[in-house]
Design goal:
Elements lengths: L2 H9 L8 H13 L4 H11 L5 H4 L8 H15 L7 H9 L9 H7 L1 H4 L6 H11 L7 H12 L19 H11 L4 H11 L34
Helix pairs in contact: 1-3, 2-3, 3-5, 6-7, 7-10, 9-10, 9-12, 10-11
Length: 231
């Protein structure tokens, strides 16, 4: 069997169904660790069952975690739909000051914020996404922006919906205002955390660039948020 062909069909980029025998073939790759583990994670995540979490979860912590940890977390939370089971893990990674368990864990978890916040409230996570969005030097800013755009359903209203621009973000004010309305954040709720993030880095003389914020961007007078996952 060709695991890459199976992966293509699982992802919908090639025609044809994925058989149970092919899913079992992918499971065996995860059990043994031999073969294309990345492709197998896609197949089992997209075509497997909740019980397959036991095969995927070790890749968050084993010797291959820095290679496969991000995909393993996505397979568990997004593809298998087990965000409730791994909610505490995703929250820990988002709120951490740096990566935990595997390289890129914070960014991976931020990309899962739309699943995490779907019909669920977490003020700390919501504020963290906004604080990261306002820091143009934060390496996770793009991930936070993408997740906020998905959470808020704003892609059709933005000048740069994919955030591909290299200069100032033309949509930052709109995203901030919409997020504060969706998350019911008051100005002081958010500014306190933003000020903490703006403290100078003692190990670096590099100046940091932040979104310029005015009171009107935080509450009241903001746009309606028709796509907000909180309803």
């Amino acid at each position: 069997m060709d695991i890459n062909s199976i992966r293509g069909r699982a992802q919908g980029v090639e025609d044809g169904p994925v058989s149970e025998q092919e899913v079992e073939f992918a499971r065996q790759i995860l059990r043994s660790g031999n073969g294309d583990v990345g492709a197998a994670l896609f197949v089992v995540g997209l075509c497997g069952a909740h019980s397959d979490a036991a095969l995927i979860e070790p890749y968050l912590r084993n010797e291959h975690k820095d290679v496969h940890g991000e995909l393993a977390l996505r397979s568990l939370c997004r593809y298998l739909g087990l965000i409730d089971r791994y909610r505490a893990v995703v929250r820990k990674y988002i709120l951490a000051d740096s990566d935990l368990d595997f390289g890129g864990s914070k960014m991976a978890a931020i990309h899962l914020a739309p699943e995490y916040l779907l019909n669920f409230r977490d003020n700390d996570v919501e504020k963290t996404l906004l604080v990261i969005l306002c820091d143009f030097e934060n390496r996770n800013r793009s991930a936070a922006r993408q997740s906020l755009v998905r959470i808020l359903g704003l892609s059709g209203e933005l000048e740069d919906p994919l955030g591909l621009g290299t200069g100032a973000d033309p949509d930052a004010s709109l995203i901030i205002a919409a997020a504060c309305e969706c998350f019911s954040l008051e100005r002081l709720d958010f500014v306190a955390d933003l000020r903490i993030s703006q403290k100078p880095d003692r190990d670096s003389a590099k100046s940091r660039t932040f979104v310029s914020l005015s009171p009107g961007q935080f509450c009241g007078g903001g746009p309606r948020v028709p796509g907000c996952l909180h309803g």
